[in-house]
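Long-time lurker, first post. I've been practising inverse folding by hand and with some scripts of my own, and I keep getting stuck on stretches where the structure tokens seem ambiguous. Below is the full token string for one chain I'm working on. Before anyone asks, I'm not after the true native sequence, just a reasonable design that respects the backbone. If someone could post their per-position residues I'd love to compare against what I wrote down in my notebook.
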């Protein structure tokens, strides 16, 4: 009786364990991504849906203009960023205070975000108008 042994090695790959791992990773990332809450700026962009300042606010909003070189103008007077930041900090106590930011057309975003970040840190409402 001469029985031959099958000595060929199978080169097949079992995909079932790989799909299990992929599904577990997918579930893990779906669950963890829903728990992440970004700490972002509360931006109110210009447009048709942007609201106007409330009419019961007796104070005029603080106007900040930014030119293309990053020069700030606070209520018509040229100012440095530190002076603008101090003004925003002083508005912190007033709950109805509004800052209106008007950048020039080609102003780099970093100057606008710097003001928006300052307003966010101090808890002051900031509105961004269309570039002029």
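-- Answer (accepted) --
I ran through it position by position. Result:
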């Amino acid at each position: 009786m001469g029985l031959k042994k099958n000595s060929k090695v199978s080169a097949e790959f079992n995909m079932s364990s790989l799909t299990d791992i992929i599904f577990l990773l997918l579930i893990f990332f779906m669950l963890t991504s829903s728990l992440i809450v970004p700490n972002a700026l509360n931006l109110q962009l210009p447009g048709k849906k942007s609201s106007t300042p409330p009419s019961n606010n007796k104070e005029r909003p603080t106007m900040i203009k930014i030119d293309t070189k990053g020069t700030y103008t606070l209520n018509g007077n040229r100012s440095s960023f530190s002076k603008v930041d101090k003004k925003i900090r002083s508005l912190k106590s007033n709950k109805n205070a509004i800052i209106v930011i008007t950048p020039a057309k080609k102003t780099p975003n970093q100057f606008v975000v710097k003001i928006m970040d300052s307003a966010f840190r101090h808890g002051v409402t900031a509105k961004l108008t269309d570039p002029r």
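A couple of notes from the structure itself: Residues 68 and 106 are 6 Å apart (CA to CA). Strands lie at 62-66, 72-74, 77-79, 98-103, 125-128. Happy to go over any region you disagree with.
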